[in-house]
């Protein structure tokens, strides 16, 4: 290979071509994986030259040429909740297989931030969106979809299929919560409270609690249903309120694992034994659920699979023929029994 003729600034395809002793057109074919007729030795020489020069494709220029940014967006409610990074891992694994990057937006489940993320997606020219929205509706997403940007939503329950290219991946949170509370009833607990959430999956999981109790001939005690904010501190505060009840619960179902862990801390600080005095049920099966002491009984939502399935649906629309109408795919759940019940 000829000696590198370095120029100041960012290396270009022409620089790679000079170093490899080939045309710029051949370099472009190789670097864009379109070099079907280029000999293997020439291809290897071009790749070696690109590595030696530190050549990085100009994604902005490429986007102008092929009308693709090679990026997808993942909009989530809380980047500090371990549930969502686990989903993002599944999304990223699929995106990398197709040569795409993933931009993550943290929206805090806030309407203004969700709208801001959507505006950013459009201004950046992002090719597609995967999102767990707490506030946005199909109507809110219509301008994005009509602009040619496909969207896959992560949903807490089945939704009606849209006539737009809007796909849904969901776990039946009502049924999953019902299974969780069924377990508490089967273990003999009768005064079951809940640390719920006002938005996102909270209402679906509360509905599951009510359905389970009704199926067992029991009524939910409204004073034992308190709201948290899906954080550990929110679970701690909610559990403290429940302990101040005239008749505290003998079991608590938290709408996610972080709140369940906050409840465990509150019970420990109050000197209560888990599960002898109060049982605790979580939801999500984040990695820390099996590490806390006592280990947390919870519901596994298979986050990695959730992310992978959402990304596969998105890339079917980005790279090949897909139905013009929306699709809906259900991901299973699994009760994971540990020491807190």
From TrEMBL:
<dbReference type="GO" id="GO:0003677">
    <property type="term" value="F:DNA binding"/>
</dbReference>
<keyword id="KW-0678">Repressor</keyword>
<keyword id="KW-0238">DNA-binding</keyword>
<dbReference type="Pfam" id="PF13377">
    <property type="entry name" value="Peripla_BP_3"/>
</dbReference>
<keyword id="KW-0804">Transcription</keyword>
<dbReference type="Pfam" id="PF00356">
    <property type="entry name" value="LacI"/>
</dbReference>
<dbReference type="InterPro" id="IPR046335">
    <property type="entry name" value="LacI/GalR-like_sensor"/>
</dbReference>
<dbReference type="InterPro" id="IPR010982">
    <property type="entry name" value="Lambda_DNA-bd_dom_sf"/>
</dbReference>
<protein>
    <submittedName>
        <fullName>LacI family DNA-binding transcriptional regulator</fullName>
    </submittedName>
</protein>
<dbReference type="InterPro" id="IPR028082">
    <property type="entry name" value="Peripla_BP_I"/>
</dbReference>
<feature type="domain" description="HTH lacI-type">
    <location>
        <begin position="11"/>
        <end position="66"/>
    </location>
</feature>
<dbReference type="InterPro" id="IPR000843">
    <property type="entry name" value="HTH_LacI"/>
</dbReference>
<keyword id="KW-0805">Transcription regulation</keyword>
